[in-house]
Fold these 4 entries.
Entry 1:
Amino acid sequence: MMMRILIVLTYYNPYTSGLTIYAARQAQALAAMGHDVTVLTSQFDPNLPEYEDDQGVQIVRLPVAFRLSKGVIMPKILSTAWKLIGQSDIINLHLPQGDAALVAIFTKIRSKPLVSTYHCDIKMPGGVINTLAGWGAALSNHISVSLSDAVVQNTRDFAEHSNFLERYLKKLTVIQPPIVVDPVSEKEITQFVRKFEIEPSRKIIGMVARLASEKGVEYLVDAVPEVLEGFDTAQVIFVGNYQNVIGEQAYKEKILPMIERLGDRWKFLGIISEAEKAAFYSLCDVLVLPSINSTESFGMVQVEGMTCGTPVVATDLPGVRQPVLSSGMGKIVPVKNPHALAEGIIAVLKSSNRLDDQKVNALKDHYSPKTVATEYEALYKKLMRSNG
C-alpha cells in the first residue's frame, strides 16, 4: 500500500546535523520503497529553491521572515501546512521544532495520524531571547507530543532519562536511527590522504561534529596534552562545520584560541563528502564523542565509525552510551572529564583493536536506512488502521 507521507522539520538538506541526516535518509528510504514522500521545511538559505525533487523526495521550502535564536519564523507555514496535511495520509514531525504545535493541531483537526520523532532535549544558551525561544520550543514540543499517536526515539535508555519524554513513555516506539557509510577503496583512502595532507603514521583521533557547545569540544582540547604524553605523534582531526554554525558564534570565539595553542596536534578539515568521510573513518585509530548533555541523544557518527571498524570513546550519556555498550567496541567515560577522556583514548590506542567483519556487517544491517524505513512503514500502517 502506497502512503502519502508528510515529514516536517525546521532544517533539511543541505543543512547538516544529526537530525537532518536522519530525516533525509528516512525520507529517501521511504520514497525508494514506493511511498509518496514530501518534506516541509525552511528555506534557511534564500538561494535554495522553494521546490525540489531530491532522490524521489519532494521538498517544499518556506521563506524565512526572521530568526529567533536557532528557530525560524515562516509566515507561509499556516496555509502551506494546512494544504499539505490535507493531501497526506500520515504526518511525521521531527522534534525539537518551533512550528511543531501548529502542525500537530492542524493534523488533529484534519483527523490524520501523527508521529513525532523526538531527537533530543533542548538546552538553550544564555540570554533573554534564547530563554524565551527555549520556552516556546518546549511548549510547542509538549503540545505536539501530547497530540501525537506515537513518539519515536532511538533508545529506551534516552527516553527513560529524559525529563521531557519520561511522561510520554506509553506512546514510545523505539526505532534506531538510519546509518550508512558507503564502501571505500584503498585508492580513495590514498586520494583522501593526499588531498588533506594526512600523516597516516600518526595516531589519528577523529571527531565528527558541528563546532557547537553541546559537543564538548573543549574537553577533548584539554585531554590532548595527556594523550600526547603516551602518544607524542597523536593528532586530532576534526571533520564538520567549524566556521559558520548557526547560533554558535560566541562558542567559536571561545574555543578557537584554545585549539590554536595545540598547533599541528589539531587539524580542521571542514565539511567533507560522504565518500571522504568513509575514508576518514577508516584512517582513524579512535573516534571521540565527548558530548555533554541531552541535546545529544545517540550520536550517529559513532556507529558510522564502527561500520568502518573504528572503535569509539563516548561520554556516559543516556542513549549516547548504547552503541559502545551493545557492540563492546570502545570505552564509555564520564561527562565533562578531560582526564577520563584522555584515559579512554589512551586505552583504545593501546589496544589497537578494530571491529571484525561479522560485527561490522551486523551493524550495517541493523542500522540500514531500509531497515529503519521498514519499521517506520509498519508503525505508519498500524496507526492508519487504528485511525480508521
Entry 2:
Amino acid sequence: MIQPVILSGGSGTRLWPLSREQMPKQFLRLTGEQSLLQQTLTRLEGLTTLPPMLIGHHSHRFLMAEQLREVQQKGQIVLEPAGRNTAPAIACAALLARQSGEDPLLLVLPADHVIGDALAFTDSVQRAEPLAEQGYLVTFGVVPTHPETGYGYIACGNALGAGHHLEAFIEKPALERAKALLEQGDTLWNSGMFLLRASRYLAELERLQPDMLAACQEAVARAQRDLDFLRLDEQAFQRCSSESIDYAVMEHCSQAAVVPLDAQWSDIGSFDALMATHTPDTVGNVATGDGVLSDTQRSLVVANHRLVATLGVEDLIVVETSDSVLVAHRDKAQGVKQLVAALTQAGRSEPHTSPQVHRPWGSFQAMNSGERYQVKHITVRPGARLSLQRHHHRAEHWVVVSGTAKVTLDERTFLVSENQSTYIPIGALHRLENPGKIPLELIEVQSGSYLGEDDIERLDDVYARHSDE
C-alpha cells in the first residue's frame, strides 16, 4: 500500500510578495481555484493510497487543516517545530508509518508543485512501484523541455525496469552546461519526489546518518497530540542537522533509481515558471487580475487589489499586493530571494506577514491604519467562533456587513445582524461567533494606545492557541 507524504514546509521566497513566511506558495491559488497543496492532494485520486500524511511547520497547522477540509479529505497532520529540510521530515514520516506494524511505500511529494497531466503522473508512480517493492529508493526525474538553470539535474545510468540506475545528482548548472545536458539526452530534472519503502529508507539513514535517525526516533516517541495535530518533540527534532534526502541518503545509496516523469511538471520556483503555467497573449504577456497592458511585451502583471497599467515596457515582472509592489526585469527574477533577505535584514515585516491573516476560525485583513486606530475586514466561517478574550489597550467597534454575529459581551449574549453594529470597550470580556450557514463578514474598527495582535488575553479557546496566534 502507498502512504502519501506531503512535504508542506517550504517558504517560497522567490515568489515574494505573493508568497510570505506566514502564507507560503503551497497555500496560494496560483494556477486555478485550488491551492498548490490542494492540487497535490486531489492528484492522488488516481492512485489507491492510505490517507495522506502532511508534514509542515506548526505555525501553518490551521492552514493545512482548513485546506484539507475544503477538498473534503482527511489525513494526519504532523507538525515540525523548526525547518530541518527533507531528510528528517521523511524519516519521521517513515517512523510514524511503521507504528501500526505495516511497512508501506512512501510516496513523498512536495506540496508546492504543479503537474498538468495527472494521468501521466499516476502512470509514472505505478511504473515505479515494482522498483520500490524490490528495495530501490526511487526518485522521479522530469523529462526536460528546455535548458533550465533553476533546476538540479539527475544523470541516468543503466536501464532498470521502468527507469534507470541513478548515476549522480548535478547541481543547478550555468546556461551553457544546461544546454549541453539537454543535448546529452541522458539527464532529467530533479523533481524532489520519491517512492520508497519506509523500512528501506530508515535502514539507509541508520547506515549513513545515525545521529539524525536517533533524533527523529526520539522526536516521534515523545510527540504529543494537540487537537487534530501531532507535534514532534521540539528538543529532539532540533538536534537534527538540516539536510535534504539527496545529500543525506540518495547520493550514497547503491540502490537508488530514477523513473522518468513527463507530466507538464513545474515547481513554480520563479516568476518565469509561474508565467509558463498560463497561456500568454500574442506578444508574450501574462496578466492576472485588473491589469491593462499597452505597448507591452513578454511581461507578467499580477494585480490583486487595484488597476495596474503598463505602457511602453518589455520583459518586466510587476506584482501588486495590498501592501507591496514588486517591479523587476525578468532577467533578474532569480534575485527575488536575495531581495527578500535584504528586506528581512532591514527589519521589514513584509517578507513575513501576509496582508490576509488566516486563523482557525477564518481570516482578517488590515484595510487601513494610523496613529491609535486600525480598520480590519474579518471573515468568520459558519459554525466557527473566536476565543473568549479581552484587550487591555484597545476598544473595538464591529459593523456586520453580511451574515449574523453572535456576540458575548461580559454577562450578555446577543445577535448582531447585517447593517447593525456593537461596541467592545477596553477590558470587556467578549467573544464573536458565527451561528449561521454563510460566512460572517464584518468591519472592525480598533482604537487605543496599542493595537498589536499580542494584546489578547484568552480565557477560553477551542483551538488551544498562544496569545498572538
Entry 3:
Amino acid sequence: MVRRAVAFGAGLLVLLLFVFLVKGCLDSRKESAINDYVADVDGLMRQSNQQSDALFTLLAGGGDASDVEIENGLNGYRIRSAQLVDLARDLDHPDDLDTAQRYLVDTLDLRREGVGLIADHLPAAIAGGDQEEGGADEIAQDMQPFLASDQLYFRRVLPAIDQVLDQEGLEQKVITSAFLPDVSWLQPTEVATRIGGIGGAEGSADAAPGLHGNGLGAVTLGGVALTPGASTSVPLSDDLTIQVQVANQGENTETDVPVKVTIGSGADAISAEAVLDTIAAGETKTVDVPIDEQPPTGQNIPISVEIEAVPGEEKTDNNVGDFSAIFTS
C-alpha cells in the first residue's frame, strides 16, 4: 500500500509539473504573439502618421510642384493608404485582440477613403474659376473620414490593445495617431485659404524636349537592404548612412537631383538630404545620404525616401518609398 501511494504521488507530481510546463510555454507563446502584433500595429500607424504629414504639407502649400506633380503625388498617397489597409488585414493576432484588429482595419480604411476623395477633388479646388469654391467645400467634407478614423483609433483600437496588455502584465505601448492635424480643416473657408498657395506651377517650363524622370531603386541602410512594407533590423552605428539607388528612366541627362530621407515622424523625425550631381539617361547611380542624428533603438521606425521630381517629370509615384526599421545597439 505504501509503495502504491508513493508511486501515485510521484506520478501526480510529474503530471502537475508537465501541466505547469505546458501552460508556461503557451503563456510565453501568447505573450510573444501579442508583442509581435503590437509592434506591427505600431509600425503601420507610424507609416500612417508619415502619410498625414506628407499630405497636409502638400495641402498647406508646401513645395513648388506643378498641377501634374500634385495630382501624381496624390495618386501615390492613394495607393500607399490602400496598401496599409491590406497590410493591416493580413496581420496575425491572438483571439484576445480580435476587437482591436477589426477597428484597426476600419481606422486605416477610413483614412484610405479620405485620401481617395481628396485626390478626386483637389484638382478642381486649385483650378481656379467657378469650380474652385465648390472644390474647397468638397475637400472640407473629405476631412470627415480622417476625423472619424482618429476617434475610432483613440476610443476603440488603443483601449482594446491596452486592455489585453494590462491583462497579460505587458508594458508595451502603441503610439498615438491623429491623421487630421486640426479641426479647422473641416471649415471650407479655412480650406480655401490654405490650399490657395498650391498648384499652377509649370514644372516643365525649363525642361529639355523628351521624357524626364527618375525612379527609386534599392535602398540600403547601414549595409542592410530595406524592404517596402516590412520591418528590418538595422545595427546602429556612429556613421550611419543610407544608400539610395536612383535610376534615370527618361531620355535626358538630369542634374542636381535632391534625394531626401526622413527617419521617424512628427517633431522627432530625422531629416537628411544629398544631391546627385548628374545622371545620364538610362543610367543608375547610388547616392549616399549620411544620417547625422541617432534614431531610437528597439522600436519600429518609419523611413521615407524621396527622389525629388526634375523639371518636366510627370510620373512621380515611383519616386517615393516607405520602409520601416528596428535599430539595434
Entry 4:
Amino acid sequence: MILYIVPVPIGNLRDITLRAIDILKSVDFIIVEDTRHSLKLLNKLEIKKRLYSYYKPKEEEKSAKIIELLKSGNGALITDSGTPVISDPGHILITKAIKSGIEIISLPGPTAFVPAITNSGIRSDMFLFAGFSPRKGGKLRNYLKALSELKCTIIFYESPKRVKNFLNTAYEIFGDRTFSISKELTKINEKICRGNLKNYISTLGEIKLQGEFVIVIEGSKGGKNGESPDLNSVEDIYDYFKEKYNISRNKIKKILMRRK
C-alpha cells in the first residue's frame, strides 16, 4: 500500500496545501509525532482518523506495528510542524517501508529553513542544511570546524536556550560573517534580524529569546580552499599560493620581501 509523507504548517494553519488536506482525508490512518498537538490541526480541518504515535526515541519499536498496518491500508506520516524527517522523526519508518515494498509518496510543503534562507539576503543558490548542532562545547566546536571551510551558505536550527552560545562559538570558529536569524516563522511573533557574527549580541538584542530559531550563516570567502587567502594569516597566504600556483614557501617569502 502507500505511505504518504505529508508536511503540515510550521505556524500559520492556512499554509497547509489543498493536496495535503485531500490525502489526510483519504488515508486509513495517520501517524503523528504527538497526538495532542496534531489533533489541533486535524480538528480544525474536521478530519477524524485513527492516530498512531511515532516519536523519538520509540521509532524503532513503533515502526514494526506501523509497517504491518501499511500492508493492508494507506497511511499518512505527519509531525508536529513542517516536513517529516527534516530534523523530525520518520527516517527509520520510511527506510523499513521501502524495504517492505511499500510505496512512498512525498508531498511538497512547509519547512522552516526555506523561508529563512530566502529572507536572509545571503546567497541561496548553494547551501547546506546542518540542522541542530551538538549541545556540548567541544563537540559543537569540532562540528563547526568541520564546516568552516565550506563556501556554501550554512543553515542551522537552534533552541532559545543555546542560541547565544551557538553564535559566540560560530564567531570564534568562522570569524566575522554575515548571518540572519529567524524566529517563530509564520507565527504572530515572527521576527527576522540580520547582522554580522562579530556583533551578534546587539543583533540578538532585537529578539525575544523564545520559540524556534533558524540561523543562516554565509559561507567561507577565503582560507585554504577559498578564492583568496586570509591576509592576516601568513600561514594561510603560504598555503593559498602553494595550492593554487605551486609556489614554494621560499619564493613566496622573496616576493613578499620585495613588496615591503
